Amino acid sequence: MLAAPPVFYLIPGLGADERVFQFLQLCGEVHVLRWLAPQTPAEPLPHYAARLAAAVPTGQPCWLVGVSFGGVLAQEVAALRPLARVVLISSFVSPRELPWVGRLARTTGLHRLVPAQLLPLLPRVAQWFFGARNGGEYRLLRQILRDTDPAFTRWAIAQLLQWPGRPWLPIVRIHGTTDRLLPAGAALSQHALPGGHLIIINQAAEISHILNELAENLNGRHAERSGKDASLHSA
């Protein structure tokens, strides 16, 4: 029995959109879960995730692929969709993985003193942190920063820093070995790839291969199990 084609739901990082997925080549049905505007400046992350999960049918086996902050949302959506499997790209599962600046902001609330409008004005600083390696990556990063809504950024950073994590959730992790934003992730990932926080762009071919292989292996196991079940019923 042939398994159904895999279904991928892609969740971009903070302020980003489907542009970060433009170089992926996935074999299956692909949807991008677009960011929603927070209902209030203090909307809890689980409540937000429930609204985002409305686009994912409850009984549908699928892959939730989240990049950076999108990985946090992927984990929250997966808690509401038991048939979903999670892949994190340049993301984290516990606040213990945040760099010292993030842990300090989590403890002290220091991030509230930094205007969200400041980030788009510092594209070269962002280039270093994100590891944008060439003109094309830098231009894309600059466009994403320019298009980011400051109110959404402020909400997302506050929610990210308050997030307790879901370290018990079964996930597959893909991380850059020189990620300056989340440097601890590579050592905790099944797939450590050369590059920084933007491996979704500059390692898109390898990430596509990993995702397609994961989906193919899972579909193969499901098809084998279905064939065994059919044989038992016909015996």
From TrEMBL:
InterPro entries: AB_hydrolase_1, AB_hydrolase_fold
MF (Gene Ontology): hydrolase activity
A Pfam family per the record: Abhydrolase_6
Alphabetically ordered keywords of this record: Hydrolase
Domain AB hydrolase-1: 10-204
SUPFAM superfamilies in UniProt: alpha/beta-Hydrolases (SSF53474)
Stated name of the protein: Alpha/beta hydrolase
